[in-house]
Design a protein that fits this description.
- The chain has about 140 residues and is mostly beta strands.
- The protein has one helix spanning about 85-90, and strands at about 25-30, 40-45, 50-60, 65-70, 80, 100, 110, 115-120, 130-135, 135-140.
- It has one domain (about 20-140): Rieske [2Fe-2S] iron-sulphur domain (Rieske Iron-sulfur Protein, 3-layer Sandwich).
- It has a four-stranded antiparallel sheet. It has a three-stranded antiparallel sheet with strand order 1-10-9, with no helix packed on it.
Length: about 140
């Protein structure tokens, strides 16, 4: 199988992302950068003393998905596959929308359904985060 190249706009969080324990969001992203369905932004945040990658995805119908990008199976970093055909070919999965895919053991997570595992050995979705939109900013919380 060939892992396809994926184009993902990476949007820097405004200010320095900090732990939610500080009472601040993990990431603050300009909503304009995530205006279209299936656009995404990556960020990093602190989790149990380590910096880990995260993602927020604008879903259709003004819904949002946000999670860690760490696969719960073996702690590999997942990738966002916006192109459904690439996801289907890479992971041999019947994906109907963009997914997160783990290149280590081929777990696939359905971002439209809360990161539900749709393929592979992962026991559960990546750690889910909360999204709130305020004053043109997308706030991601633990």
């Amino acid at each position: 199988m060939l892992l396809g190249a994926v184009s993902l706009p990476v949007v820097a969080a405004i200010g320095r992302p900090t732990a939610a324990a500080d009472g601040l969001p993990l990431a603050v992203i300009d909503q304009k950068a995530l205006a279209e369905p299936w656009t995404a932004a990556e960020f990093s945040f602190e989790l149990e003393g380590d910096r880990v990658p995260g993602i927020v995805v604008k879903l259709p119908a003004e819904r949002w998905y946000a999670s860690s990008l760490i696969c719960p199976h073996a702690k590999c970093v997942t990738r966002y596959f916006r192109d459904v055909t690439v996801a289907q070919d890479t992971f041999d999965v019947a994906a109907k929308n963009p997914v997160l895919g783990c290149p280590c053991h081929f777990s696939v997570f359905d971002v439209a359904n809360g990161g539900k595992v749709i393929s592979g050995p992962a026991p559960n979705p990546p750690q889910q985060l909360t999204v709130e939109v305020q004053d043109g900013k997308v706030l991601v919380w633990k």
